Amino acid sequence: MTATLLKEASPPPVTLADRRRRARRRGRAVALAFVLPALLLLGALVVYPVLFSVGRSFFDASGTRFVGGDNYTEMFRDPATIKAVRNTAIWVVVAPTLLTGLGLVLAVLVEKVRWATAFKLLLFMPMAVSFLAAGIIFRLAYDEDPDKGVLNAAVVSVHDAFTGTSAYPTARARDGQGLTKGADGSYRTTASASPGDTVALGLVGVLPEDLPRGARPAYAAARRQAAPGELRGAVYLDFTRGGGGEQGRADRKESGLPEMTVEAVRDGHAVASTTTAADGSFRFQHLGPGPYTVRLPASNFAPPYEGVSWLGPALVTPAVIGAYLWIWTGFAMVLIGAGLAALPRDALEAARMDGANEWQIFRRITVPLLAPVLTVVFVTLVINVMKVFDLVYIIAPGPVQEDATVLATQMWLVSFGGGNNQGLGSALGVLLLLLVVPAMIFNVRRFLGSRR
Membrane-crossing residues (predicted)? Predict the structure, then answer.
């Protein structure tokens, strides 16, 4: 009887299934213990802000009055927001496309150079630069002053090498000294001159230290008698260093203005043209009889070419996209290069043995095989450019900030940058989230599909 009661009170035997079940429970508990801190951070830094922003978008600027969908209506009525949506669309279309194309081309070319590792390192180095530092670098590079902005310095150098530039952009004539200014910026004599006359044309507004090298005094040239049938004269700086001298006359210390174009005009048409010598002298020979007007064309006084307004309203968005390309091209190249390294080489070699050239191999074999990698890179860059903020905010100057604004910068400007309307700013944040989420879902599905 006692043995029977003890047998009935003993616990049932532990089976192998029970042990496995307990092991799974312990595994889940350990996994949850490790994941819990990350989940808490995710909830505090992502989930809660998203839910709060969604709720805040239905209240007014002060957050005290419920306004429903008024913020979303106002968002699409605001011209600045419409411009931000347009600029974001430009970013989404242009930047990822260019980056993916550049990354593909560079990844293919790097395989064919000897110093491939050094080349990859050089292109990937901008990724180590923060967006703040990169923005400051390109803000300086895009400066309109050629003495500061490296891009405009290069543009001005190339322009001046082919077109040339005026040596006297600040020169002008004194009032009442025999020269009148035309509507086109040229100067001409008020009195007519005929062959056999000598004409002295005095100008001011040129610093003596800005005179071309080799400039000589114009005193003798302004007084030299013209030969029969010859019209001559001198263009000089009507200014004596240290004071003194007589206005309208070339004094002994006053310099000629070399390399200045002079024209002889009759009946409104230039019949002869020449360039002044080192002492400012010029002469016209073989002119027919009759009165002429001596003219200094406007090209002598044209302001110097200042380059391109990179940060003006028309080019500020392409300029900022250029800075973004500089940073992210290495990233695209490395990812695509990793996919390229995994391609089956036998397919490429078989194509070469069949007579295909490198362009055909690239277009018909390499690109199709790399399509999954290219898609992931493109979508990743799309997600990234939708959130771009630093470069736009730093590179675009204040007067053109609205012309360069994107959704992320507009959201900040409306909420904290002077607008102080966090209801409308939250609505912009929700819009940005709705645009980013589909691309993120697509990328996650591609990633999960590649693991199966």
Answer: 29-51, 89-109, 121-142, 323-344, 365-383, 423-444
Cβ contact 320:404 at 8 Å: yes
Where does a domain end: 301, 329, 344?
Answer: 301
> Three-class SS of residue 84?
helix
Kindly give, in sequence order, each residue whose CB lies less than 8 Å from that of residue 239, ignoring residues fewer than 6 positions away.
204, 206, 208, 245, 254
Residue 315 shares a structural domain with residue 437: yes
pTM over 0.70: yes
Tell me which residue has tokens 């990812």.
335
Angle, alpha carbons 313-315-316 (nearest 5°): 70
Are residues 253 and 345 part of one domain? Answer: no
User: What are the phi and psi torsion angles at 80 (to 5°)?
Assistant: -65, -40
Do 280 and 231 reside in the same domain of the chain?
A: yes
3-state helix, strand, coil in the chain (%, to 5): 55, 10, 35
Report how many domains make up the chain: 3
Mind listing the pLDDT tens digit for each residue in 95-110? 999 999 999 989 888 8
pLDDT-above-90 percentage for the chain: 19
In this prediction, residue 319 has a pLDDT band, given cuts at 50, 70 and 90, of very high
Only one residue has tokens 């959201």, namely 411
- In tens, the pLDDT along 346-375 reads 777 787 887 778 788 888 888 888 888 898
Residue 265 backbone dihedrals phi, psi, to 5 degrees? -115, 135
Q: 133 and 192 share a domain?
A: no
- Residue range of the domain that includes 251: 179-301
Question: CA–CA distance from 37 to each of 26, 49, 63 (Å)?
Answer: 18, 17, 31
Using alpha carbons, select from 406, 319, 371, 333 the residue that is nearest to residue 137: 319
CB 256 within 8 A of CB 186: no
Q: How far apart are CA 90 and CA 79, in angstroms?
A: 17
DSSP, collapsed to helix, strand or coil, labels residue 179 as strand
